[in-house]
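The instructor's notes for this session suggest beginning with a concrete chain rather than abstract definitions. Hand out the sequence below and ask the class to guess, before any prediction is shown, which regions might be ordered.
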Amino acid sequence: MKKQFIASSLLFSSLLFAQNITDIQFINLSKISSDIANDTLDMSVGDEMDSHKINEAIKKFYRFGYFNNINVETNKGALIFDFKEKPSIAQIHVTGYKTREEDLEMLYSAMGIKKGNMYSKKRIEAAKEALLNELKKEGYIDSVVETEIQELSTQSVAVTFNVSKGDEIIIKKVNYNGANELDEDEFEPVTANKEEDFIKWWFGQNDGELKLDQLEYDHLRIKEAYLEKGYLDAKVKEPFLKVDFNSANADLDFYIEEGQQYRINEIKIYVDEEIVKAKDIYPELLLKKDKVFNVKRLRKDQQYIKVQVANKGYAFAQIRYDIQKDVEKGTASIVYNVLPGEQVYINDVIISGNSRTLDRVIRRNVFLAPQDLYNETDYTDSLGALGRSGFFENSI
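After discussion, reveal the predicted structure:
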C-alpha cells in the first residue's frame, strides 16, 4: 500500500496504521548530506512510524532554507522524503550601473548577494532594496531597479538587476554660516560634499554631486578643521540640505559657532621616571608652548609617548590626556598621564600562513625573538620589513 502524507505545506497526517520503518529514502537531496538528513529525522529503520517526529523533522528541514517543498510518503513500510530544492544563484548581472569588476564585487557585498547563494524572492528583494540604497548614497533620486530571473537548470538561476538611474542631485551652493575665522578653502579639502564649480569638468574642479552617505560626517570634518587651528570650543551642527526635486539642485547649509583660538600654555607628562624620563620626551613633542593648539599634533604626541613606554616592554600602556582651558587668557595646558601596565616578554614567535618561504628566511625580517622584552618599534619595523620583502601580500 502506498500512501502520501505531505504535499507542499501540509503536515504529516497523524492517522497512521501501526507499522515499523523498513527503509528510509531521501530523494533529490544534494544540499545536505544523508548523515545530516538522518540526524534531522531522528528515526531509524526498525523504529515505529511516529507522526510527531516526522512533522518535527519536516520543520527542521525547512529551517535549513534549502527547500521549496518536501513531500513525504510511505510505501510498504518505506519512509520516503522527496525534496524540491531551491536553485542556487549561478550568475549575477547589473546593467545600467557600475561596470568595473572590482566595483561590482563591492556592490554585490553591499547588496548581500553572491554566487552560490540559495535563490529566494525574499533574498532578491532585499538585494534590490540594498541596491536602491547604494544609488541614494551616490545622490541619485527616484531610481528604478527591475529584476529578471532566468532559469539555467533545475538547480541554478541567473539574476539580472536592471538599473534606471534617477536624477543626480547637484549641490549648487554651500553656506558655512557663522564661519569668520576659517573660510571655504579650509573646509573643502576635508569635506565630501562640495559646491559645484563653474567649470566642473576641468581637472581638480568639484562636480557638486551629492554624496549622501558622507553627509552625516561632514560637520564632524569641519569641526576637526577647527580643532587643528586651535578652536577648542567650536561647534558645528549637522548640515541642512534643501533639495529642489524639479531641477535636482540643492543648497547645503552648515551652522557654525567658532569660539576663540587657544594657544599652548604648558605641557606636563606624569610618568614613572624609572620607565622613561619625561625630560627626554618633551623636546620631541610637536606641540610647543605659546604655539596654536592642534589636535592632530596632540594625537601624534600621544602616540609618540606610548611608543617610548612600549619600547620598554609595556605593550599595553595607556596614555590619557586632559586639556585644561583658561578661557580668559585663551590658553590650554595639556596633561598626559601614563598608565604603563605590566611588562611583557615575548613567549614565542609563530609564523603562519606561509607555505613557500623557509621560516628562517622570514625570521631574518623579524626583530623580536622568544624571551625578548617587548619593543613597539621593533614590532613595527618587523611588519615593515616583512612587507618590503615581497614574500607576502599582507602581514599582521
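Then share the key points. Residues 121-137 form the longest helix (17 residues). The chain has a mean pLDDT of 88.
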